[in-house]
């Protein structure tokens, strides 16, 4: 079950009220529970998906970075079950330990300075191989799950003016890359098995993500075009 929350989740066990200090630091009846003083009760290598207030992806952040948004009351809403719990100081009066619950997807208040729909995703071999589902675009050989043996192949050769951009590159095994050489697919009589394309912002976050939770993966994948090769392996 997915949850949608409209306020930050600083809580003690009995819901004591808290106040924001002068530097955006959260206190529970005098006890500092800044992100640096809090500890995790689960693994710490998970990525949190940061959105703008309209729900568009902005960045992959760490749980510690996410905690700073909660601490400054910058979280507008969240999606998903609590994925991390951070614990701070113990209240001398109640004996209760302060707690911060972090969600896997959070939207931050304020307008985004950059519209990522106007930005072409950065190109890397890791993301290219993942976009092409670790397959050679010429012979179809599968090189998953690491892409070992694949190369970045320029459809229209760079030596002839071809650009190093998403729409002109595909994954190719070393053998096919060498065979095609400095020729176009038509000249080499090596037709492409699938067409290259520029990933959307949602797909780019999937390509770049590491240790992505299943529910976050689904949230992003549901916003990827069905014409994308992202679905070729599903």
Average pLDDT, all residues: 81
Q: What is the topology, as strand order, of the major beta sheet?
A: 1-9-12-7-8
- Element-level helix/strand string: EEEEEEEEHEEEEHEEHHHH
Coarse shape: elongated
- What are the low-pLDDT stretches, counting only 5+ consecutive residues below 50? 1-42
Fraction of residues in helix:
10-25%
Strand content: 15-25%
Q: What's the domain count?
A: 2
Lay out the secondary structure.
Elements: E1 4-5, E2 10-11, E3 19-20, E4 26-28, E5 31-32, E6 39-40, E7 48-51, E8 57-61, H1 63-71, E9 75-79, E10 84-90, E11 97-102, E12 105-108, H2 125-131, E13 150-154, E14 169-173, H3 174-180, H4 185-188, H5 201-208, H6 214-221
Parallel strand pairs: 7-12
Antiparallel strand pairs: 1-9, 2-11, 3-4, 4-5, 6-10, 7-8, 9-12, 10-11, 13-14
Task: Describe this structure as you would to a colleague.
- The chain is α+β, with helices and mostly antiparallel strands and 234 residues long.
- The protein has two domains: 113 residues, no CATH class; 74 residues, DNA Binding (I), subunit A (Orthogonal Bundle).
- 18% of the residues lie in helices and 23% in strands.
- It contains six helices and 14 strands.
- The strands form four sheets. It has a five-stranded mixed β-sheet with strand order 1-9-12-7-8, sandwiched between helices.
- The radius of gyration is 23 Å and the shape is elongated.
- The two termini are 23 Å apart.
- The N terminus is likely disordered.
């Amino acid at each position: 079950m997915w949850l949608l929350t409209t306020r930050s989740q600083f809580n003690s066990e009995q819901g004591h009220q808290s106040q924001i200090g002068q530097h955006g630091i959260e206190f529970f009846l005098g006890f500092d529970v800044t992100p640096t003083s809090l500890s995790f009760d689960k693994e710490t290598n998970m990525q949190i998906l940061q959105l703008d207030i309209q729900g568009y992806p902005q960045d992959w952040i760490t749980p510690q970075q996410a905690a700073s948004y909660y601490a400054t009351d910058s979280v507008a809403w969240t999606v998903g079950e609590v994925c991390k719990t951070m614990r701070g100081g113990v209240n001398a009066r109640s004996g209760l330990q302060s707690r911060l619950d972090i969600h896997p997807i959070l939207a931050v208040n304020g307008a985004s300075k950059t519209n990522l729909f106007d930005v072409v995703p950065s190109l890397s071999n890791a993301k290219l191989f993942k976009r092409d589902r670790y397959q050679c675009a010429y012979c179809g050989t599968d090189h998953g799950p690491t892409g070992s043996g694949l190369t970045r192949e320029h459809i229209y050769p760079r030596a002839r003016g071809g650009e190093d951009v998403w729409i002109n590159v595909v994954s190719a095994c070393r053998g096919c890359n060498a065979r095609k050489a400095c020729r176009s697919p038509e000249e080499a009589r090596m037709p492409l098995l699938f067409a290259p394309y520029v990933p959307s912002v949602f797909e780019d976050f999937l390509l770049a993500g590491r240790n992505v939770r299943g529910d976050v993966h689904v949230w992003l994948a549901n916003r990827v075009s069905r014409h994308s090769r992202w679905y070729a392996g599903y």
